Amino acid sequence: MASLLARHFTDERILDHDVRDSLLASLATFVSHRATLDAMERLPIDERMSFIGRLIQPYEGRNWAQMNWILIRLWKGCGFGFRYLHLPYLLPSRKDRFGNFDFANHQFLSPSHLLQRDLGLFMSQQSALASAFINSVLNHANWAFSQFVETLQEFDTAMTRAGVFTFEPRQMKICATCFDLTVSLLRTLEMCCEVYKELLLDETTLRRMSQFIAAILNRVTSDLFTRMLSFRLPGMDTVDAFPALVAAAALLIQMVLLNPRRENAIQTLIEESGFQLSTVELMLEPPENRFYLLKYNEISMEEMEQLKQLVQVLKTSSLRPKASSISEDEFCPICFADAANCQFSPCGHHSCRSCIERHLLNSKLCFFCKKTVQSVHDVA
């Protein structure tokens, strides 16, 4: 059965979308259980490599969320603080008859070290495809997080003006889904950095990762994020600082501590205007701090030591926290690093110059409303 699924999944002659979706769903089930994952690992090397190659085709125009979910199943249990069977900041609602927590989307850990090695081998052999894949992951991660932040801002504005929350459950579900996608895409980047170290030698990739990590850390530690969490909105139980901060820390550790050429990564972080070391140090501060990681059982003492080492390396590299006179409302809603000093025409949305210029290299549509951006001009 494993061979049948893998061969049909990689068969370009199968064009029917329903059939392809069924194959994808079956593969997602296969990699979620140890016994069937073992069957995937027993496939001949050529079938496994074809399977991996199909998984990491650039995500544009594909069922990318499901593809990414499969990759995450191969990694979960190996990443930094990525061993939880249920979301550690939630009280389990109930247990099933076997005594396990009843969270349908958080199965037992079954990472595949063999398929991870296959992934690294494939990426080293197909470096151009690997680069295109990472670029697409970063594009989708930026999109998902931008949508999440924009929706949070809409929620906050509405509650400030009206004093009541009037949004539909569907909107809250979309917001939570964008957050979950952001975290899972961060974890995919962590796995790719681990199995394919050459990925971190590319300056463009380092720069884009640095900007994205800075945006995550700044937003998740902001007053807006904390304020919206305090409302305990229905349908947004999975939204919390823990998964985002731990995933961002995991990527920083890959970039700095586990990178054979860490000097380039450190220099890129120094040059990233939005990166503030203080947002990383928050994870190390005493237990009364809401961002302190060690209060979660999922974080080990060894991992906390890694985080301390990361901070120390950055400090000794003359990286200092950056102060800003910009108010929170004036920050770019994409990177949360620079002032939102550019306006798009005709829709009127704003971002900083750096974000919109990078975005327009890949798409001519507005981040937020998806209208075509005809021009961009500076605003005071």
Report the total helices.
15
Largest sheet: 3 strands, antiparallel
Q: Uncertain regions: pLDDT < 50 for 5+ in a row?
A: 91-106
Structural class: mainly alpha
Major β-sheet strand ordering: 2-1-3
Determine the mean pLDDT.
83
Percent strand equals under 5%
Proportion of helical residues: 55-70%
Structure, described:
The protein has 380 residues and is mostly helical. It is 55% helix and 3% strand. The protein has 15 helices and three strands. The chain has helices spanning 2-9, 17-30, 34-41, 45-55, 64-75, 113-125, 127-162, 169-195, 203-220, 223-230, 241-256, 262-271, 277-281, 301-316, 353-360, and strands at residues 342-345, 350-351, 375-378. The chain has a three-stranded antiparallel sheet. A hairpin with a 4-residue loop joins β1 (342-345) and β2. It starts with a helix and ends with a strand.
SSE layout:
Layout lengths: L1 H8 L7 H14 L3 H8 L3 H11 L8 H12 L37 H13 L1 H36 L6 H27 L7 H18 L2 H8 L10 H16 L5 H10 L5 H5 L19 H16 L25 E4 L4 E2 L1 H8 L14 E4 L2
Antiparallel strand pairs: 1-2, 1-3
Helix pairs in contact: 1-2, 1-4, 2-5, 4-6, 5-8, 6-7, 6-8, 7-8, 7-9, 7-10, 8-11, 9-11, 9-12, 11-14
